[in-house]
Specification:
alpha+beta, Alpha-Beta Plaits, two-stranded antiparallel ribbon, about 30% helix, flat
């Protein structure tokens, strides 16, 4: 992968001037390369990794990993059904994977019932969906290569008799 892309993947806040200095290139060349990558779709989005566990209001969303078995469509394979599934607003990520299931989804909802309702009313009834397995995420330790710090838990005092 190109060095500019590697730097931006690790730290998207780096300016073209900083990247140019790191790579001993001209800032205008770096700006031009970044613009080209954006136009070609290599750079799709710039993103901040947020540790939602540290946000004070407790209205955080529930995330789930959902394994989906599907029947591929004739002459279309998995793509058409995957497109239908990833079009749902609840689905934040969708991957075709090898193994015992076909798609891996990351789904978000305001609570467990919202995610459960999505699975039972929208996902499972789809014609090509053969089965699903849902795993609710309980705690994040690391995301996108970043180790997340957690709030101090209340430490209980051991009781002895």
């Amino acid at each position: 992968m190109d060095q500019i892309l590697e730097i931006l993947e690790k730290e998207a806040r780096r300016s073209p001037e900083e990247i140019a200095k790191m790579l001993k290139k001209k800032p205008q060349d770096v700006r031009k390369a970044i613009k080209k990558y954006e136009n070609e779709g290599l750079i799709v989005k710039y993103k901040a990794v947020i540790n939602k566990e540290l946000i004070k209001n407790d209205g955080s969303e529930v995330r789930a990993l959902i394994e989906v078995n599907i029947t591929p469509q004739k002459d279309l394979g998995f793509d058409r059904i995957a497109e239908r599934i990833y079009s749902f607003t609840e689905v934040t990520s969708c991957y075709l994977v090898s193994g015992t299931y076909d798609l891996l989804l990351i789904v978000e909802g305001k609570d467990l019932q919202t995610v459960s309702k999505f699975v039972s009313e929208k996902l499972s009834p789809l014609e090509n969906v053969k089965g699903t397995v849902t795993h609710f995420l309980l705690k994040k330790y690391k995301e996108d290569g970043v180790i997340l710090k957690h709030r101090e838990e209340n430490k209980r005092i051991a009781i002895s008799y």
